[in-house]
Specification:
It is a single chain. With 303 residues, this protein is an alpha/beta fold. The protein folds into two domains: 2-225, Rossmann fold (3-Layer(aba) Sandwich), CATH 3.40.50; 229-287, Alpha-Beta Plaits. The protein is 34% helix and 28% strand. The chain contains ten helices and 14 strands. The chain has helices at 45-52, 74-78, 96-106, 111-124, 140-153, 170-185, 197-203, 221-225, 266-278, 290-298; strands at residues 4-14, 18-29, 34-38, 60-65, 68-69, 81-84, 158-162, 189-194, 206-211, 214-219, 232-237, 251-255, 258-263, 282-287. The strands form three sheets. Strands 6-7-8-3-9-10 form a six-stranded mixed sheet, with helices on both faces. Strands 2-1-4-5 form a four-stranded antiparallel sheet. α6 (170-185) links the parallel β7 and β8. α3 (96-106) packs across α4 (111-124), α3 packs parallel to α5 (140-153) and α4 (111-124) crosses α5 (140-153). The longest helix has 16 residues, at 170-185. The radius of gyration is 22 Å and the shape is globular.
């Protein structure tokens, strides 16, 4: 049994123009995995999450959470999920403890169950020592972790997080990543949406790249990177004329005075880097990243 499954899911918004936000999306998320929907803004990530979490009706298609139909069994679905919406704001006079405790009580827990669940959740997100401070006095990252703790305290089987690290600095973002992986280690399931490449590559067991409402690639981060024929890249700063590198033979992207040259193997990458350094240019080489593949797949290379 899949934790989450969609079959030919379609969503069309009707306003001044008809916008097809989801185009026959088929996704299966296994129990106990962190599955990421990766895509640019407006790709359909939030629309998919809102349908799966029973907040939005699809135009057509089917969607299931633990074999419960999100259209015909929304109340049953909600018993098994916890959702952290995108850009959710905290109430300034609430404390992290109050968020976790009262949300747990609203889900039907007894006082003792809610206290235990809240304590465990706040410790997991490293907010136990700040549990009684009002959210108005917390940093942006601490507020986000307070919201995640409230979801975590619910003891739901499936967590749905929409851009949970949006707007956070690098340190706060990595603390959230650590929490997400700890949740997975507890046997839970996470559906995550993000447009941050490093986040998708670091935390995901599997991911789907969604673009203009359609899934264009799916697999583990390593499997996605295998879709590119070029496996290495060389970043060179300066004039390429002395390197005998042409766009006819290589995929080349220019950023100001820097060039990214994509090549098929490490030997070719090292040879180009050696030539560049010999000619007094700055150069470095590395395996391609998920971002490199993503940009190529969605057709957004700079030139």
């Amino acid at each position: 049994m899949d934790a989450v499954k969609s079959i030919d899911l379609v969503k069309v918004y009707h306003s001044k123009e008809k916008v097809k936000a989801l185009k026959n999306v088929n996704i299966s998320i296994q129990k106990g995995e962190l599955f990421t929907l990766l895509g640019p803004n407006g790709a359909g990530k939030t629309t998919f999450l809102r349908i799966i979490s029973t907040q939005l009706l699809p135009t057509s298609g089917e969607a299931y959470v633990l074999d419960h139909n999100v259209l015909t069994e929304p109340v049953e679905v909600r018993k098994h999920i916890a959702v952290v919406p995108q850009d959710v704001a905290t109430y300034g006079n609430f404390t992290p403890w109050e968020y976790s405790y009262y949300f747990s009580r609203l889900r039907g827990m007894s006082k003792s169950e809610a206290k235990n669940a809240s304590k465990n959740a706040l410790k997991a997100v490293e907010l136990w020592n700040l549990r009684n401070r009002t959210c108005a006095t917390l940093s942006g990252g601490e507020k986000k972790r307070a919201i995640i703790a409230a979801a975590l305290a619910s003891n739901a089987e499936i967590f749905m997080l929409d851009e949970p690290t949006s707007g956070l600095d690098a340190v706060a973002r990595r603390k959230v990543w650590a929490v997400l992986r700890e949740i997975i280690e507890q046997g839970k399931t996470i559906l995550l949406t993000t447009h941050i490449m490093e986040e998708a590559e670091m935390v995901s067991d599997r991911l789907a790249i969604i673009h203009k409402g359609a899934v264009i690639a799916e697999g583990s981060p390593e499997q996605i990177k295998l879709l590119a024929k070029e496996k290495f890249r060389v970043v060179v700063e300066g004039n390429l004329n002395s390197l005998s590198v042409t766009e006819n033979n290589n995929h080349i992207v220019k950023f100001g005075s820097k060039w990214i040259i994509y090549v098929k193997d490490e030997d070719e990458a090292l040879e180009i880097a050696r030539k560049a350094l010999k000619n007094g240019l700055k150069a470095e080489t590395a395996p391609i990243t998920l971002e490199d593949v993503f940009v190529k797949l969605v057709g957004g290379e700079a030139g």
